[in-house]
């Protein structure tokens, strides 16, 4: 089952990143990476056309309190959301405390290992502080970068399905899962 999430006041630090709630001051950094062709499509949304597009999403990030800003050397370069998953699609998880992750990273920072670093920090927080039993994470079958991040972080295949993007295209997707006991075994 989806458990409530509120990241207000939560700040996670890694060797290179600070994961924190979004602020209005992040708007320009957000628009800078979200307007680049090829970034949003990896997660099922089109590039932001103007700063007003970014403002609407930023308002949602701030209000819903479930998406971390990835701050790298004082600049926001991505987001990592703790999302609800479709409980009807995964009835076997109804007695478990679960959520799903969704992430996006600025194209300028791809290939540096920053997203696995961020996912591992949020995973640790979700298992140790929020006490989740399992975390889901999905990627389009062609998105090898996201698949690699999830594999590096210990996620294993759960299901193959389809996902309708915000621009009306249906994509084949692969949902992966990480159970707390598997995470604990890898992090004694």
Provide structural commentary.
This protein is an alpha+beta fold. It has helices spanning 27-34, 51-64, 114-128, 144-152, 180-186; strands spanning 12-13, 18-21, 67-72, 75-83, 98-105, 134-140, 156-164, 170-179. The chain has an eight-stranded mixed sheet with strand order 1-2-3-4-5-6-8-7, with helices on both faces. β1 (12-13) and β2 form a beta hairpin. α1 (27-34) crosses α2 (51-64). The longest helix has 15 residues, at 114-128. The radius of gyration is 16 Å and the shape is globular.
Poorly predicted spans: none
SSE-based structural type: alpha+beta
Provide the succession of SSEs.
EEHHEEEHEHEEH
CA(first)-CA(last) distance = 26 Å
* Cα Rg: 16 Å
Mean pLDDT: 95
Q: What fraction of the residues are assigned to beta strands by DSSP?
A: 25-35%
What is the compact description of this entry?
By secondary structure, this protein is an alpha+beta fold. It is 28% helix and 29% strand. The chain has five helices and eight strands.
Looking at this protein, list some descriptive labels.
alpha+beta; eight-stranded mixed β-sheet; 188 residues
Describe the SSE topology.
Blueprint: E1 12-13, E2 18-21, H1 27-34, H2 51-64, E3 67-72, E4 75-83, E5 98-105, H3 114-128, E6 134-140, H4 144-152, E7 156-164, E8 170-179, H5 180-186
Parallel strand pairs: 5-6
Antiparallel strand pairs: 1-2, 2-3, 3-4, 4-5, 6-8, 7-8
